[in-house]
Structure formats: C-alpha cells, structure tokens
Design goal:
eight-stranded mixed sheet, 3 domains, Fructose-1,6-Bisphosphatase, Chain A, domain 1, globular, D-Maltodextrin-Binding Protein, domain 2, five-stranded mixed sheet
Length: 324
C-alpha cells in the first residue's frame, strides 16, 4: 500500500506540504489530498496526487451510496408503518378505481407514496422519482422507483401479501433496493455487488434443478388490464409439470421469495417497472437469473418476466417460448 504524506515514510520533497496522516477507508474527498500534495514540478508527486484523488473519489462515492442505502431503509421502514396504520381502519379508507374495475388504488397507496416522495425530495432535491401513483418527477442522473403498495388487492382484503418496493437507479443501473412486507415482518434489501439480505441476514436462491421438483409463482396482471394475451395458457401448461404454484399477488414479494429460496422461479405478463425494479436487483444479488421469456435477454421486460434460481432457466424458458 502507498504510504500517504504525513506518515514516517512520506516523500521527501521541498514542494510537498505534509499534513497528519489519513486512513484510506475513512470518509475522504479529493480536496484533502489537494491540500496534502501541492507539487506541480515533481512528476512522481503528481502521479501520487492523481492516484490519491482517484481513491478519494471512490471512497466518497462508496460513502454516499451507503448513506443513501441507510436513508432508503429508514424511509421504507416508515412507509411500512404508515401502511399498517391504514390497515387498522380498512373499512373506512377511500378506494378509487383506475382504468378498470380490477385496478384499484386506496388512500393508503397515495399516502405512502406522498410520504416517500416528500422525504426523497427533501433529502435529494436533484434526484428524479418515478412512482406508480404520482408518475415522473424529473431530476438528474439518480432515479427512485416507487411502488407504494405492491399488492393493493391483498391490502384491501386484509391479507398479508403486500409490500412497499423502492429501487434507486443511477443512469439506468439499479444500485439499491428495498422491499418491505410489514405484515409478514420481512424486509429485503440489496446493494449492487454486495448481495441481498432478509432482515439483515444474507440470502441465496434455491438449488432446485428440475421443474418437476419446483415451486413456482405467477400473477395475473393481464386480467386486471383486460389484456387479450393472458397468462392462462402458460398456467395450464406449466401446472402439471411442476410440484406446485403460489399466487402471492405482489411481484416484488415473488422476486424476493425467489431470492431467499421460498420459491424456485416465477413468470408473469404485463407488469410495470415499479412492480419489479427493486425485486430484480434483490433476486439477482441472491444468485437468481432474470430475463424475458426467451431466457437470454431483457428486451421485453417488464411486459414479460421470467426469473429463476438459474438452474431452471432453460427448462422453463423452453416451455414458455413454445406457448408464446
């Protein structure tokens, strides 16, 4: 490791201004190094300065991401509490129909999203936001993708399978994700390159390697939207070929259950980006594979999604593509 200026082995040069030594793992900023190394003459010192600036930028970016991650967990936790408060008075909450009679929004959905948007704008006013209920809030390179209650029908019917789902993108790359299923007491998180967790415990996909032994999940967003291409042919074909199936009513939960091995794979049609943004990162960081039905790319996401533990991917894709 390079010895930084200010330590016992600092470069001996009249142009170098020594300062107290620093730790590479600590919060840093290029300006710190600029004050420590001011040497326009000696190229060795200049190279060291550039190296230290690069390290500083990386350390600063990592610190900012961890701070953002902590903030994400905090607001998604609070969003879950807000949903639970509304859940205690379900009989009196306002429910509004969207485009079809099966596509509903409650005042709880709106309240949770308004809270999240307000907190994000206050903390990161230059960030963009895309929410299911409030749409696009323009901003810079960062974008927060929000599904305030994924599984609204479950929520309305006092069932536990709903979640608050939030992902953070930077220039189209998802960096952070949190999915909170408050009634179930399950809080899933992921950071790009750092793995996924359930209630702070690392998780991994299952080892199931044949559809005959697999527990799959699916959903019927296609029915909610009255789509002509629906999921029934896929369901009817796959059901006899697998061990069993589950229908949780929340794509975010489906993807998280894949991530922790509770199911081995899933497929669905006509989802939206806010349904899957957080769950895709969580599943991927737990070792899962997420594509469209082709099994090879993501061109048709989120309109069709297939996610597995990886070992089932080719087998499931072959069946889905035959029907497609």
């Amino acid at each position: 490791m390079m010895t930084p200026p200010g330590s016992k082995k600092s470069l001996q040069n009249p142009h170098t201004i020594t300062t107290p030594s620093f730790t590479f793992g600590a919060l840093t900023h290029p300006s710190i190094y600029k004050n420590s190394l001011v040497n326009p003459v000696n190229p060795v010192d200049n190279n060291l300065y550039e190296t230290l600036c690069s390290v500083a930028k990386t350390e600063t970016a990592n610190y900012e991401l961890k701070t953002m991650n902590s903030f994400l967990k905090q607001i998604v936790t609070r969003a879950g509490e807000i949903s639970l408060d509304y859940k205690t008075r379900l009989a009196g909450i306002k429910i509004t129909q969207k485009e079809t009679a099966k596509d509903l929004v409650t005042e709880a959905d709106v309240a949770v999203e308004n809270y999240l948007v307000e907190q994000i704008k206050r903390r990161y006013p230059d960030h963009a936001i895309f929410g299911e209920e409030t749409g696009l809030h323009t901003g810079g390179d960062y974008r927060w993708i929000i599904d305030p209650i994924d599984g609204t029908l479950s929520f309305i019917h006092n069932q536990p399978f709903y979640s608050i789902s939030v992902a953070v993108e930077h220039r189209g790359q998802t960096l952070l994700a949190a999915v909170n299923a408050p009634v179930l007491g399950e809080f899933f998180t992921a950071e790009l390159g750092q793995g996924a967790t359930l209630n702070d415990t690392p998780i991994r996909v299952s080892n199931c390697d044949t559809l005959a032994d697999a527990m799959l999940a699916t959903g019927f967003a296609c029915m909610r939207g009255n789509q002509t291409r629906n999921n029934l042919p896929y369901f009817n074909t796959l059901m006899p070929k697998i061990r069993d199936i589950r229908r949780y009513g929340s794509a975010a939960i489906d993807l998280c259950y894949l991530a922790c091995g509770k199911i081995d794979g899933l497929w669905e049609l006509y989802l939206q980006i806010y349904d899957i943004a957080a769950g895709v990162l969580i599943a991927g960081e737990a070792g899962g594979t997420v594509t469209d039905f082709s099994g090879k790319n993501t061109d048709n996401l989120p309109g069709e999604i297939m996610a597995t533990n990886g070992k089932l991917h080719n087998e499931l894709s072959e069946i889905l593509m035959e029907i497609r």
